[in-house]
Amino acid sequence: MSTSEIARPGGFLGELNSRHHHRALTVFMVIVVAHWAEHIVQAIQIYGFGWPTSKARGVLGMPFPWLISQEWLHYGYALVMLVFLWVLRHGFAGRSRQWWNLALGIQFWHHIEHLLLFIQAQSGWRLAGQKVPTSIIQLLVPRVELHLFYNTIVTIPMIVAVVLHRRASAAERKLTGCSCGVPRRPVLAAS
């Protein structure tokens, strides 16, 4: 779909992707980057500090260790992220939309992997006779490294998309109705 073919949604989605896109995108990206940072911290705990995987729980997992072991929580996050990638994509046009769509496609697969883990945790069935819930790619790559990789390859295209989006041309802004890239007027101090 070319930039000139992007259709703007109406109603709530239209408002979210135009007038409120900047705020919604900012909140979403803060959450996504914080989640990615949790995976980075976990990798540092394992490879930098030499902690065993069972003790490396990121920042939030240290005071709340149950966060790490709850497949429903991981699946819920993957699903919510997929939904917001879909919902907020209407505010993007041109190259930024291509990068956002790349992140959406990768997150769709990441969501499938988490769905598979969630089903195993709920049913007791295990993929390929494994002892614990295991995703498809996890048969080849350990879970900590795999999820750091997944979160990295989803987050980086999102960051590229946001940077390109904030530098959108006037034509792209007109197509989406989004004001993210519009330079803010400086506030003049009263004399």
Q: What descriptors fit this protein?
A:
191 residues; mainly alpha; 61% helix; elongated
Annotation, overall tally of beta strands: 0
Measured on Cα atoms, how large is the radius of gyration? 20 Å
Largest sheet report: none
Number of domains: 1
Short description:
The protein has 191 residues and is mainly alpha-helical.
Structural features, described:
The protein has helices at 11-16, 21-48, 66-69, 71-88, 94-123, 143-166, 170-176. The chain is an all-alpha fold and 191 residues long. The protein has one domain (14-176). The protein is elongated. The N and C termini lie far apart (51 Å). The model has no long low-confidence stretch (mean pLDDT 91).
Write the layout of secondary structure elements.
Layout: H1 11-16, H2 21-48, H3 66-69, H4 71-88, H5 94-123, H6 143-166, H7 170-176
Helix pairs in contact: 2-6, 4-5, 5-6
